[in-house]
Design a protein that fits this description.
single chain; alpha/beta; 8 strands
Length: 305
């Protein structure tokens, strides 16, 4: 599990959940799940990305939990979810199914938002019965389905074998990140955020990423390096919206455009000028607004909710 070193104050400090539970995945992996907001309100499920945790969604939870039931969970090995020897896209799909079954009533439908590896989790779960039964609509933030190494621009070289080799080494590194220092913040900002990201945004992201155990980061980095979920994209039959930052170096806009072209029901692509990979942190109002619009358009609110 991660060392919990997220920020303790400000808009990116994780709110206290109304309820905490443990979802058990198909292989017995235990997943930390938080439920925020009023019972009976429209449901939103949040799946975070590589090296992150539920803390990554603090700005979404603070806003949406006023009138939504927001469900956020830690991917296996991240946050408060213990590490597991099984690390694969199939395991990610199993975990999302387990969370949906543990938190949503039979027939209840939610908007599912995934960032980065969380979006890949959604693609991996596209054909799963529980996902299809419960996902009314999807928001994919800063993600891709394949060719992550080939398309990444973290290494400032021309596309080709050298850039791919260096990118793969970075993605799969098991070197310790160490404390959050000014140099660490500059490196993280360069790799994952837009040039105009405010210091408090960078600090929040750095604390979350640096809390991820290096073994977990290394193993899941290897999974991402070999990712091929193009088939899953074509199986996402519900309405899907896509968001990406134009300065995203990890999953550049080429991925968002490819997703939009392959999705059976793409209802919009938003490219946020100058923003990097951490769109829910860098542009919380835009991301929250898209989630709210998907809830309003594609889910039915219970009477009296």
């Amino acid at each position: 599990m991660s060392r919990l070193t997220h920020v303790a104050s400000g808009p990116y400090a994780p709110p206290a959940p109304a309820r905490v539970l443990t979802a058990v995945s198909a292989d017995g992996a235990r997943l930390h799940v938080e439920v925020h907001g009023p019972e009976g309100a429209p449901a939103v499920v949040l799946a975070h990305g590589w090296t992150c945790s539920t803390a990554f969604w603090a700005a979404q939870i603070r806003d949406l939990a006023a009138d939504h039931r927001v469900i956020a969970y830690d991917q296996r090995g991240h946050g408060r979810s213990p590490a597991s020897p099984a690390c694969s896209t199939e395991a990610l799909a199993d975990d999302l199914e387990a969370v949906l079954l543990a938190t949503l009533a039979p027939g209840e439908r939610a908007v599912v938002a995934g960032h980065s590896m969380g979006g890949m989790t959604v693609m991996a779960a596209a054909t799963r019965p529980a996902f299809r039964a419960h996902a009314a609509a999807v928001l994919l933030c800063s993600t891709g389905s394949s060719r992550l190494i080939a398309e990444s621009t973290v290494v400032p070289l021309r596309p080709g074998r050298v850039r791919s080799f260096l990118t793969r080494r970075i993605l799969g590194s098991s070197a310790p990140l160490g404390p959050v220092t000014p140099l660490a913040r500059r490196i993280l900002k360069y790799a994952t955020m837009g040039a105009g990201s405010a210091p408090h945004m960078v600090e929040a992201c750095a604390r979350i990423v640096h809390a991820c155990p290096r073994r977990v980061r290394h193993v899941w980095g290897g999974v991402l390096a070999l990712l091929d979920l193009d088939h899953g994209v074509r199986e996402l039959r519900m309405p899907v919206e896509v968001i990406v930052g134009t300065a995203d170096r990890l999953t550049p806009p080429v991925h968002a455009r490819a997703l939009a072209a392959a999705l059976p029901t793409c209802v919009g692509v938003t490219e946020l000028p100058g923003l990097g990979h951490m769109t829910p942190v860098e542009a919380p109002e835009a991301v929250n607004g898209r989630i709210r619009a998907l809830v309003t358009t594609y889910t039915q609110v219970k009477e009296g909710a």
